[in-house]
Each structure stands twice: as structure tokens, then as C-alpha cells.
Amino acid sequence: MSGARVAEGMMLFGADWNPEQWPEKVNDADLRLMREAGVNRVSLGMFAWSTIEPQDGRFELDWLERLLDRLDAASIGVNLATPSAAPPWWLLDAHPEIQLVDAQGRRVPGGGRLSWCPSSAVFRHYATRAAAVLSEAFGRHPALSLWHVGNEFGNENAQCFCDECAIAFRSWARRRHTTLDTLNRAWGTAFWGHGYTAWSQITPPRTTRNPPDPGLALDYRRFCSDQLLAHYRAEVVAIRGAGSTVPATTNFMIAQGADAIDHHAWSAEVDVVANDHYTVAADPERHRELAFSADRARGVAGGGPWLLMEHSTSAVNWQPRNRAKGPGEMRRDTLSHIARGADGALFFQWRASTAGVEQFHSAMVPHAGVHTRVWREVCELGAELARLAPVTGSVVERAEVAVLWDAQAHWAMDAARPPTIDVAYPLLPERTHRAFHRRGIRVDVLHPDDALAGYRLIILPGLYQASAGLTERLDAAVRSGMHVLITALSGIVDDTARVIGGGYPGAFRELLGLRGEELLPLQPGQRVRLSDGSTAERWVEHLTPTTSRTTATFSDGPLRGLGAMTRRELGAGTVRYVAAVLAEESFDALAGALTAELGIRPPAAATGTAVDLVRRVAADGTGFLFCINHGAEEAEIAVYGEDLLTGRVARGTGAVPAGGAAVFRERRTSLSGGHHDERGQS
Amino acid sequence: MSGARVAEGMMLFGADWNPEQWPEKVNDADLRLMREAGVNRVSLGMFAWSTIEPQDGRFELDWLERLLDRLDAASIGVNLATPSAAPPWWLLDAHPEIQLVDAQGRRVPGGGRLSWCPSSAVFRHYATRAAAVLSEAFGRHPALSLWHVGNEFGNENAQCFCDECAIAFRSWARRRHTTLDTLNRAWGTAFWGHGYTAWSQITPPRTTRNPPDPGLALDYRRFCSDQLLAHYRAEVVAIRGAGSTVPATTNFMIAQGADAIDHHAWSAEVDVVANDHYTVAADPERHRELAFSADRARGVAGGGPWLLMEHSTSAVNWQPRNRAKGPGEMRRDTLSHIARGADGALFFQWRASTAGVEQFHSAMVPHAGVHTRVWREVCELGAELARLAPVTGSVVERAEVAVLWDAQAHWAMDAARPPTIDVAYPLLPERTHRAFHRRGIRVDVLHPDDALAGYRLIILPGLYQASAGLTERLDAAVRSGMHVLITALSGIVDDTARVIGGGYPGAFRELLGLRGEELLPLQPGQRVRLSDGSTAERWVEHLTPTTSRTTATFSDGPLRGLGAMTRRELGAGTVRYVAAVLAEESFDALAGALTAELGIRPPAAATGTAVDLVRRVAADGTGFLFCINHGAEEAEIAVYGEDLLTGRVARGTGAVPAGGAAVFRERRTSLSGGHHDERGQS
Amino acid sequence: MSGARVAEGMMLFGADWNPEQWPEKVNDADLRLMREAGVNRVSLGMFAWSTIEPQDGRFELDWLERLLDRLDAASIGVNLATPSAAPPWWLLDAHPEIQLVDAQGRRVPGGGRLSWCPSSAVFRHYATRAAAVLSEAFGRHPALSLWHVGNEFGNENAQCFCDECAIAFRSWARRRHTTLDTLNRAWGTAFWGHGYTAWSQITPPRTTRNPPDPGLALDYRRFCSDQLLAHYRAEVVAIRGAGSTVPATTNFMIAQGADAIDHHAWSAEVDVVANDHYTVAADPERHRELAFSADRARGVAGGGPWLLMEHSTSAVNWQPRNRAKGPGEMRRDTLSHIARGADGALFFQWRASTAGVEQFHSAMVPHAGVHTRVWREVCELGAELARLAPVTGSVVERAEVAVLWDAQAHWAMDAARPPTIDVAYPLLPERTHRAFHRRGIRVDVLHPDDALAGYRLIILPGLYQASAGLTERLDAAVRSGMHVLITALSGIVDDTARVIGGGYPGAFRELLGLRGEELLPLQPGQRVRLSDGSTAERWVEHLTPTTSRTTATFSDGPLRGLGAMTRRELGAGTVRYVAAVLAEESFDALAGALTAELGIRPPAAATGTAVDLVRRVAADGTGFLFCINHGAEEAEIAVYGEDLLTGRVARGTGAVPAGGAAVFRERRTSLSGGHHDERGQS
Lengths: 682, 682, 682
Description:
Three copies of one chain form a homotrimer.
Chain A: E1 12-17, H1 24-37, E2 41-44, H2 49-52, H3 62-73, E3 77-81, H4 89-94, H5 121-138, E4 144-148, H6 163-177, H7 180-187, H8 214-241, E5 248-249, E6 251-252, H9 263-267, E7 274-276, H10 286-300, E8 306-310, H11 329-339, E9 342-347, H12 373-387, E10 395-396, E11 401-404, H13 407-415, H14 427-438, E12 443-446, E13 457-460, H15 470-479, E14 483-487, H16 509-512, E15 514-521, E16 527-529, E17 535-545, E18 549-553, E19 563-570, E20 573-578, E21 580-582, H17 584-598, E22 611-617, E23 623-629, E24 635-643, E25 649-656, E26 661-666
Parallel strand pairs in A: 1-2, 1-9, 2-3, 3-4, 4-5, 6-7, 7-8, 8-9, 11-12, 11-13, 13-14, 14-20
Antiparallel strand pairs in A: 10-22, 15-17, 16-17, 17-21, 18-19, 19-20, 22-23, 23-26, 24-25, 24-26
């Protein structure tokens, strides 16, 4: 990440616009409506390859130039997409081998999108040529604000198993492991007699009658992410080679606990972190999932501003039951992203499609047109975001609690044939974030390699694989006063997906002062009580404290009387372990006990618990307190300052209506205190 | 449909008979038993290709001729099958390419049945040659009563995705859309950049990582039905070319809401509409599903008599749990079909197979032989059907309520990536039919192109796609006094599966006098109350009345306070809308309110609600009131006339025993009154 | 089965040891720990092909020789594996055609295990060459105690559908059926026109749009088991050809009701019956499943001693939720197998893998090392088994109840398109065994061809297919005083999977004195009451008694008032039928009534019902009463003799602690009495 600013002094607002899919007169209307709504940014051309290059090497760009000119005239910036998400039929017809092969060995035919093989030299040739042509044509166009390279890398092509990938994977594996001996050891191929005696024997983990070797499966996920990144880089090189210096990015999919690619590794390669996020209809607390995803996105952005590249005004079209958003919900969602560091919020898409797979996806202009609630709310939101211009460039106040998340740990757990099917990687991080969110406590989401200093409490929720050096850094941090909570399913394997012997959790047992003997998945519906009143489900562990002491025991179940939670005092801090998957309400209680003990509080006092409070702080110390009320009753916030949305000034108390929001600009104050409370100063 | 009569003056009774699967002496016994049971019609040869043509071009027909002669001697008519349902191994071995390719690209191997590709020129050659040979040999045989072309077209081969189909589909698409521009517009290919630049790029919607484009998927269903129909026609041409003028048909599968083919389009091509129907073990109200399917079959037959080509004496073998029928149930089922217009009822099959995939399918002669309840009931039924000869040729009295059903709308909904998985096409028509059936109100099932005149109430239950001209015809009908009820999920797309913009339901919003803004699928278990006491589930819609008035509002849920039902007075009639999927009991209540308001009543008064009452009327005005008692108590019917089954005469009141049936021949009366009530005349 | 003894005078104890997967120094530690644990037998080399033969034809055996020498020095015997379970990559690379093709036509790629085609000539060449090389090298080595040929034949390769199998299947079918006419009749190919006119048309039952013909599907299962057996034999021939006379076997998978191969047919070919067994985490009564599997294994071994080749110290890794065993549970499991005839109990595996697919499978040495409960229990168990040396060679006392089990009946039911999905073959045998096990009554599991004499009660629980001659042998046995209980779903088809006509159950209706008319699967949740208070579920049958009398009728449901159970007196015995699947508790009650009526009692009196009591009897008449207490309270057993585990002597009463076990050596007594009770003699 080059640290390019998302935008200069304005909160971005707009959408994917696909004018090539509509008649000219609709385009005219669109431009008028965009002004009405306050749109200042659109993404163009994502699926326009067949329009841009209708035949091999014949490019038609006039239409696009006209649009860029008109957008420029309208002061609407453009994220110009390279079109690789949607290769045209002439290319698929001539080169079916650009399409990925699935784990069953089936080449995916044309007709969808994004199913190209990331190792395909032919595809890379065509994709980079198109990128270069666009860069030459528009790389210096005044409307061009950001390159939007491809689309949602990995969404349909997270893994390809073709022979071209096999060849590339052998090279990748050789670079990583140097010798076959090292590789055989790393992957543990001796088990089931899979020892390789020639590099050419290495193949992708295609479906057999058994699960793949975990070491191989993990490396293959890494390889696939690297191949996609290599493709991304090649497109950027083509853009730069054609002379454009405009920042470039691609839209990540940090949402719902997914890791199609390793966002941390990618973040160094994009000029701006951009993310797509859609709420989950089936989740009654979907705004908490949003908060977690936004916190993850900010973590990937290194804490600085990022761009919400896609979200929706109302329903999406790809969930089993695509719930429409209620009145005010779009606004709360958008402001929640901005509160958590987004310097702009775009939608997929501008105008609802009437045909195609996404015909029932909501848009800024719905099927029913502008005499609709959705359109009215869109216009109101555009006006409000304009009033939030002062917020841009500010950073979200550091939280006191951090949660570690690592795509590598995620993939390692996916790669295992696990002791139970009931604990997938995202479960524990999600449950952890949600527990604090329910109490109004902000959480930063860090990568294990990020600096840990400055936090009161660091949590490793099921961090299945510990990256190198993490244990030592945690040890040092604890000695200097930090508190660490590690949960079951953490630190079990090393970076080759190999179990660390000698007692679970191998990576952390010395730090924790305990030795785990056995992992005990529970059966469906089985619950275990703990001596502190907690309830465990899905998973418990048999441990023996060494240098730690037991703070709770199992009251029943297979480990009755044995230790369930431990605490070790170490220097100025503590390290705690929970040898169980706690039920949601028990994890909530644990979060409550920890925050009480450590004196961790929400960023401001508020009535009720339904208000999400996040403070962004500008370079000059100005605070912006975002207050988003997800509840059914008006809330009162202890705050001083002007609500940028309404212009009303709060003098000690600010009201936020049920389902509403406020953004208070707070008086400048010291940043050093962590908490930002002006009460004493008023 | 040529309008050939099903049979001349007798109620057909019999089964599929597969004598080639049994020893000669069993055939002898079968012929004796057929006489005992009153069989007057059998279907022969459906799976006999390998017996008829044991080697390429070598036909062995003597055995068949002998059987036809013996059947003729026994006065048993024959539906002679062309054998295309079961290509022999020598053909599969020489031409594996006659088998269909599935959406995954896998060619289905031999060993099943009916899996031939409808575009295969090779298969058509062999199938039509066999048909011609049979026609030459037996086309004038006195036993031959009906050609039974193939079997259940589309059951295993509703769609093929092979390259031969791809070529045929390109021609089909060219005929339909003329130019690629038109086609691209129709299918909305611009979305996701699927624009075709050459006809050769068009391929069947094989499985990709995404759902197919709805416009393409819909056209492919149409194409497949057309290809199957072309094959059917080719076989008929071969039969006619060999000189036979005996009527021809094939057995449809109008059952359980399925539309493997477009029965309406096919009905013009068959000389007699024939249908296969099997009750659904898991459905506690399976007799209502039967009634709906029979009403659909009659609708396909244009209201005239049709033939029940297959049903079962007891259990089938292909459901998860194959329930056996209880005492009297086969009789009620058979008579229910006849009540609804069938002029005969045949079974699959005559004698239960001991081997093969259908070895546990019931038959007229069960595994256990003739000392069985099933055989006794078969013989009693045969005797009863003989007494119903006077009924043949009569037509079912026109209902006052009609429901529109359209395979095109069905396929369009299947082709969409829908807002919710919880509302498949058949749900709303089925729920509608069932609501009226529970109240004893008869329903005709019409195709949208059928004449609408003469009905009091027309219902469009989730008619997702409106065919051309329907809105105008409804408008005219309403102005002249008809009442129309349209439910949610109707009229959303045009005939290219494209959403009609400007407000839902695009096709009907002017007629309805409202504008819908948004579609709101509900989550599982979510219920919404309406102000009239109704409950909605699965789906609600946000609408604004324009020229209509709101008759019920949502009392809670996402649209609290907004309109849920509307009514527009238009000329002498009304148009109503229900902007929700009503729970079954609420839809029942709505049906009750409508019938009360419009004065729609059952065809005769009866005690209780368990008696299904249907009147057929002969050309001379004689009525035949079918009374089928599905309840556990004797019912009394207000009727005058002789029960053809028992010979007993009802003078104002007829009794129908629990689980029993009666068919009263009513005195001749005027047909014009719609209702046929002699009470005043007695 | 040659009748080789499992071992000479010692109870085998040990595990699969995979030293090639670990560094040398771990091997050194392993040998020390094996002595500590009392290990006297290890299995070597199962997955070591790539180590033994790293390149085509280059064998490296020195490492193995050193290990054998060291094991010999440590007095640890070796089961030396031929390595065919895990073909090396160089072989897979050169000959991908050795891998099986699945029913969809997909060749399984390398990367798993055991997926070789049993018909592959190439694979057989390589596998037998490796076996011969091992035999030449180690066939006379003093450590070699048993050849362990391959591993779990059929686990991943129970069926292959490749063209090489197709060719072999044609030969197999020709040998079995001689002519195509016979074959066509046997398979009932006339149905659906599948009649073959050339042998070359016969293909494996690859997946079509329909289920396969039952006759074909059943023969294909037989063929596949035969092909696997041919491969086993070929490996043994190679071993013998190289001069080794050490007994040979392979590990069966008699567990959880599975029949990957026909163990009865295979038992004649192995020198010792060996079995793998793992308990089922999701089954709360998993010790009963263990008992049934062990009784099946003993039945396959003809009643004599057998070897438990694999079980687990704690969790496995391949179930959805891999439950760890509780304290004492491993010991109870091991002793339960020994009680039921095992002369040794080995584990998979010695040392827990840290990598590979089975990294979370428990072992004798866990991940956490030797300071663990599991290791302590392993050492205690090793010491105890040493004290059980006197038990070896003894045989399990004949039970009074026998249950018939037949893989052929199992496969026949699997091959059918059945009337219901709710009754798979193992259900009724399992429910039967469990009912008696709950009452402490021992059950022998016999093959239908086994001698039936000597039992009081023989049960045919859902023996879907009756083998030739069984009915006559049952008839004779009953006349001479035996009692027979036959349940629903027995005797329905013959050995070609063809329904036996004339009334169900065709094979037994004369013997039973009844005639069944119809099979009536029930719907989910549907229950039917019987006049004796029983409850039926899933399935009832309509029958008419002929020479039997009805002992219970259906009180409700579709057969209200008709017979549900019958009894026929025949000579000195009785034959009974249950025309329903009884609910578990009702089957338990029936078992109780039968045992009471026939005076069948447990082998010894005990308090409570949680103690599993099994007596083994030595050639000299010494009894060994195994008492395994699965309950939570101490139990008292009426017994005289010394507990071999503790050395304590019981004089009329022996105590077995909660969760504990005892093995009492009883005074020599007559074997003739069946029951072995010394009370009167003390």
C-alpha cells in the first residue's frame, strides 16, 4: 500500500456505472440523476471487455472517451476498470484454456465471469494488453481518479487445478522449499507414502477419495493467492508501462469471514485498500458482522483510511433469501463503514439491471425509478456525505482491544482434516468481535505481524497457526504490561500445517504455562458447564497447568474437575487461556469480566447499548464521534460538539434518534490519552 | 389436438402390458385375467425395442402380431408404442453419441432409459425407422386403437447440452431473434460482458461458477421442448408415411406442478391428450394434488375428454417412501380423474415386475397374485367403469373460477436467480387450487391464451411472466364484469425474462392501479400479519396504490402500515392484488371471502366438506354428478338421479359412504345456467 | 482360513509402526517405549512403498532389515505389510491407469490412498513384484510373524468402473451365467429393454439418469469383491513363491454394519481373520456397536480366535466430530474385543502423526508425549494383557441365540430401488443384536451357510435375500426343536435380486405359514400400534396367515385389525414372523419375551444391567469370564475364580468397579451344559 489518499477532501459517493448496458438516453438521464444524488465518483468498465475490444485487437474506445469527458464536466471522478473480470466470447472461443479447471478436473466453460486461470499465460497476454490500451488512452484523462484492476480477485477463481497451474506450482514449491527433501518433510508426505522423488510428480490437490495432505493443501492456497497477485501486478505494470501514474487498486472481499486471497500480503501492492461488503440477510445482528468486516478492512489498510468500493442500497441477489433493507438501514450501513475508516462509500450498482444474473440486485436507481424510498434515501445520503468532507483523512482512534486475524491460519484450518466439523476458522474471531461490539467496546483487527504496542488486551481467538516470532513478541508485550487472551484451537500447527508436538497448543504452551494433552470435540447439542457459570459447546481441551493457575474448571462433561481457564502472571501483564469454545453468551460474559477488570470502556457514555460509537481523529486532533443508533429508542450520548449531519450542537449531551445517526465534531484535544473526553474541559 | 375421441362409447380400462418380459404361459394367464378384470385397452411395446429389433435393421414382429390378434379376439384395444424410450444396447454401443450430455458436460452412458439427445440425427433415424416399420406392419390392424409415441418425453431428457444441441440451438436462436443485436438485447448479454459477436459463440447454458443468464436459460428450455416436439412429430410423420391413420399421442406428465415440456404447445400436436399421474406419498392431501393435476390435464385438452394413460393401483417405486394405497383409494383416485374429464384410466402396469428398476411398483396383478385385495378392487373397478360408459364423451361443467398456468412463466421463474429460494413457480398455483378445492369450489386451469369469457373469477397466482396481450384481454374482461385476482410474483418479467421497469408488477401495474417499489423476501419462520387477520410468509411487496384502493395493510413486519391488498373497480368488474405470499390458511380464508362475495358455490349441496363434487355434462344435457367421499363419514348430497355405480336412485338426497363414491345421472336440464340444480323442478 | 493360531501363548499388543516417517532418534525412543508399554507385535511398512522402492525396480531394504533385527532383539514380532495400499508417485505418474474410475467415469488421480483398480494388470504386476521382493528378503526373518497383505481392501476401492474392469466383468459374468439368455433372465434385462445381444455390450453400472438394474448392480458388487480377492491371492502367491511360509492375512473392516467385501467368502483365504474396528462417536451406545462388530468378526473366523488388527486409543480423525475416549474406555474396548474372541489387540498407530491426513488420529504415543493419561493407560493395558496370556487359544462359549448376517443380502438390498429409504440392510440386524445385548444375552452372528445346530433361537432380521437351501435347513432345524424368528424385509428376493412371486416373503412364506400381499413403508414420524403394546415404524406388511396363527394385530394405521405377528408350531419348534419394523424399545420387549419364554439367560448373574459378560472356554474346559462394567456403579457378579487382572479370588461373588473390568478364571467344568455355572459345585 503506497499510502495514497483515498480522495482529496471529499467523501466519495457513487457506484459502479455500466452505461454500455443501456441506451444513450438512459445515460443522459443517469448523469442528471447523479448530480441530483450528489455522486462524485463512479466505477466504469468492469464488465465492458466485449464492448471495449469487440474483436481480437480491435479496440473501440470513443464511447468511453465521451463518457469520461462528460463525467469530468460533471465533476465526477472515475475508477476505471481493467476488464479482466469478463473475458469476451471471442477470446473464450479461441482459447478455452484460459478458463480454470476445478478440483474434479473439469474445465469451466464460458458463460459466467471471473473463472479465468490465474496461471494462464494466454489470458495474461490479453488482459495486460487491454489494460495497456486503456492506460494509453485514458491514463492522463482528468476524470481518471483511480485504476480499478479487474474485480473481486478470487471470487470465482480462488483455486484452479489445471496443468498450467501444476507447472507453475512446481516452480513455486521449488522456490519455497528448495529441495524435495525439505518439501517432503514440510508436507509430511511420508504418511500414506506420498514422498516425491521428482519435481514433476507434484500436482495440485485434485479431488481423490481422501482429503488432501494438509501441508500440500495449505501451500496450494498460498500459491493460488500468489498467482492471482502476480496477475494483478502484471496488469499494474501494463498500466504503468503505458504511462499512467494514477493510483491503482482492486476491490477486496473482506466480509463474512472469508479469505479468498491473503489481503495482508496484497495490501502492500495496492495504492488504496478498497473493499466490497454486503450484509447477511440471515444474520439478525448483521450490523455487527458489518462492523467486524470494516474493522478487518481498516486493519488491512494499516489503520488508515480505505474505500468502500461496493455495498448495496437494499437487497442483493445471491443469498438464499435476499432481504431488502429497511428505512434508514442503508444510511446506517454506509455511516458505519465511514465511522470505521472508509473515506467514501460506493454502491454496486448505479442503475438496477433488468436482465442478467444480477437483475434482482438493488441499485441507487431501482427498477421502479426515482419515485421510491430508496432513491429518496440515496439523495439524502449523498447530501449528508458531502457534509462529512472534514472527516476525510482522519483516522479511527486506536482501540484498547485487538484481535489477531490471519488468512494463513484460516487456510491452515481449512487444509486440515479437523477433529470436528463444528469449528471453522471464522467462528471464534467473529464471536470475539461480536462480544465486545455488544458492549460498545471497539476492537482493532490486526495481522500477527502488526505492531502490538499500545493495546491493553490482545486476543488470539482460534489462531490455529502461529506465525514465526509471534510467541516471542507476545511474551515481550505481556512482560511490559499487556494482557493476552488465547482461546482453544490456537497455536496447534506450525506454518507447514504440522502439529507442534509436546502438548497443545504447541506454539503457546510455554507462554501460557500449561500443557494440553487432548482435544475433545463435543457432539451436537452437548454442553459442558464451567465452575464460573460459563457453558462450553463444540470443543473442550484437556490441559495441565504448569506455570499458570486454574481460574475455572469443568463442572461436568468428559473433563469434570479439570482446568478450563488459566491465568499466568508474567511481568506486568497476564496471559490467559480458555480451553473450550464458549457458548456465545458465555463468551460475552467473559468479555464483560475482562473489560471490567482492565478498565476498558466505550469511547463515550451512552444510554442503552444499541448505539455504535466510533471516533475518528484528524491530524490536528479534532475528533469525529460517529454515533449510529441500531435500536428502537432514542439514545443520549455524552458529547460536546456539532453534529455534522444536522448542524445541531451538543453541549454535554447529544441525542441520536431511533435508527438514526449523528457525527459530532469534537473540540481539539490531546491524542495521548487514548480516550477522548472533553467533559472536564467544558 | 385433432379432437379425436378418446374412445367410442366405452370407458377405457387397462394397463401397460409387457408380455415380452414374461414366458408364454404367463401371457395366456394374463389374457384370461384381463377378461376377468374387464380390461378393454392395453399399451404394448413401450420398452420392447430390443425385442422388436434385436439387431440393426432386423425386425422380429411375429410375436407382436400374435399378441395383437389375440387381443383383438378378446376385444381389447391396443395403444401401440413406438419403442424410442428404450434404445437397445446394439444401438448404444454403435452410437454412444445418441445419449444426452448433462450440464456438467458428461455424456450419460447406456443402462437407464429415455436419456437420448432430442437433437440427435442418428437417434431420430433409428427411432423413426422403427416407428415406420411398426406402422407398416400393424397400422391397419383391427386391435390398434391409438399410437403411443415414445414415453414420457422429457422425463429423463428434458435438457441436453451436447454439441449437436449447440448447433441446433444456434439455428433455433437465429430463427427466434433474427440478428445477434436482437438476441443480445433479448438476453441482456451486456451484463457481465456476454455479448455475442458471432452465432458460433452461442452455447448451451452449461454449468459455470455462476447461474446462467436468465434470458438464455429460458430460451434453452423452450428450445429443448421444441426439439423433443420435433422428435415426436418426426415419429408421427413416419407412422403416417407408412399409411396408418389411427390417432397418435404420447403420455404427458402433468403432475406435481412439473413442466418438463410445454404441454400447451404440444397439445396441438397430439390427437388425444394423455396423461400420467401418480399421487404423492408425503402429501397428506394428495387427493387435492390429483385434482389439480387432472384439472391441468383437462385444461391442456381444451376442456374436452382426455385419457389417463398411467396411474397406479397402489405404491410406486420412485418416491423416498412409497406408500401403498388403502382400501378404496385406487377407486377414488380413478374416479377423480374420470370426474375431471378422463374417458378412461389405465395403469402402469398390468403385472408387477419381479426384476428391473421398477420391481416394487404396484400393478393390476401384484407379486402376490390374484388372492389379494388389490386384485379384488381392480376387478370391482373394471366392472364399475363399464357401467360408466354413458359418461364418455361428456365434458366437465365449466367452473366459475379459473386459474392461469403457463409453462413459460414456470420456466422463466426457474431461469431467474430469484430474490428467494422459498417460492418456486408451482407454489402459488397449487395453494390457490387447493384453497378452492377445500371449499368444494371447482377450478378450471387455463393457459393465458385461452378464452377467458364465462368465468366469474380469474386468478393469476404468481404468473411471473405475462404473455403478450394478456393484460389487454384481462382489462377488457374486467370491464365487462369479470373479477380478477393477481398475486405477488406475477407479471414481473417479459417474455425474455427481463424485468419490466417502472414499478412492479410491470405487466399489470396499470391494470391493478398501483406501483410496486420493492420485493421483500422474508426469512425462514418470519411471519407478517395483515390488518384483515391474514398472515403472510416468504414474501411481501412494497406498493403504492394509484387508481386502486387499499383493502388491507401490513400490521407489522418491514412494511408496517403499507398496503398489502388492493382493489380497483373497473367497469363492471374488479381487479385485486395481494402483495404477499399468504400462509395457506390465510389464502383459504381469502378464497372463502371471494366466493362469498361473488356468490360462487359448489356444484351441489353436501354435508361436510370431504366430498369432491364434479359434474360432467353430455351433449344432450344429461348431467353426471361425481361424488367422491374422501372423508371418514357418510355424506349426503342434494341430488336427483340414479347412481350409475349402484343403480340406486336418489330423490333429492343421495348418500355416499365414507371413502366411497357415487355417480348420479341427473335429469336433462338447461346448460346455460352454469349451475345444474333440479331441486326446483322435481 | 487355514486355522493358523493368532499367536503362540501370548496376547498380542502393539500397533502399526511407521518408523520411516520419523527420524532415527525417534525410532530409538520408540523401541524403548514399546518395551515400557509391553508391546509384543507391530505392523510395519503399510504405507512404505515409496521408501522400499523409491524408483521403479530399485528396492531399498536395508533400513527395514535393521528394524526387523532390532525388533527381533526386543522380542517384538512383526506383521510385515506388502505396500500395495500406497502406490508411489513414480508409479502413478507412469501409469495413471492403475487408479480406479468412479461411477461418473472420472479416473481418480493420485494423492490419496488405496484407490487402485482391482482389475489392473499393471498394478498387479508392480504390487506382486514388491510383495515377492519383501518375501525373498524377509520371508524367513525370525521377527516376521504374519504377512499383512495390503490394507483394508475395498475401503477406498470397493468398486471401480473402468474399461479394464468392464472387460474382466464380461468374463466374470460369462463364467457365472454361461449364456446371454441366462444372464438376461437373471438380471431381468427385458424390463426397460436392456436385453444384451453380445457379451461386449455388458458394461459396469455407471451412473445414468436412473438407478441401475438390481440384478446387474448386485452382480457387480460380487465381481468387485472377487477382483479384490484375486488381487489378495496374487500377492499371497508372490509371497509363497518367494519361499515364505509365514501365515498371511489382511485387515477386514467389519464395523458399523459395512460390507466393503464379502468377508465370509474371503475368510477361507486368510490364515488368520484380522479386523479393524473404531467406535462411533455419535452413537451413545457405541460399546454395543463394538460388541456386534466383534461378534461378526468371530463369526467370520468360524467362532475361533481372531486378531484385532487396528483400533484406537482415543479419537479417530475421519468422523464428523471425533470424540476422545474417556478414562478407562480404551481398556473396556480392548477387553471387549478379547472377550469376544480376539487373541490380541493392536492399535492404529504407535506414534501420533504430526502431518498428513491422519494427524489428528490418536495413537499409543500421543502428540503430547508420555506424560499423558493415554500413555499411562496404554502401559497399564499392556501389563494386563500380559496377564491374559492363558486366555489365548480359548474360544468364546457358544451363544443360545444366533443372528444370520449375509453380505449378499446386504448388497442385494443396496442394489434395489427399495420401497423406502428408511430401512438400510444393517438396521434390523443391529437393532436385533442390541436388543439382546441390552439384556445381557450373548448372540453369535452366523452366515446362512454355517451350521445352525446347537442354538435355541435363530433370528433372520431383514435377511432380504435368502441363500439357496436355507429354508430347508431352517425347516429341519425347527422340526427338531429350534425356534426361529423372521422379521419383515426377509426373503423377498432370490440370489439374482429378483422378487420371489406368489406372496411375500417368497423364500419363507411356506415355512412361516403365511402369505404377504403388500409392503407398506410408513412416512417419517408415522407410528403404528400393535395389540401387544408394541410400536412399529418405517415399515409394515399386509399378510394373511395360512398354517400359522396370529399372535398380535395392528391396532391402528393402514392395516388396522390385520395380523402383525404370527407363530407356527412345527415339530418340536416354532417359527415366528414380525410383519413390521418394530421401534427399538418394542424390539427390546420382544427380545425379553422370547428369552423369558425360551429360558435363555446371561452367562452369569450380575447386579444391574451394565455389565457385559462373555465367557471364553479353553480346550481343557477352563472358563474365562470377562466382565466389563459400562455402568456408573460397581457391579457384583456371581462367579468363582481368580480375576486375572487383579489376582483377587472371587468365591461366589466378584466385584467389578464402575467403568472397570475383571476376567475370572473359572474352575474346569463340563462343556456340555452350555451354561457354565459352578455354584452348585462350590
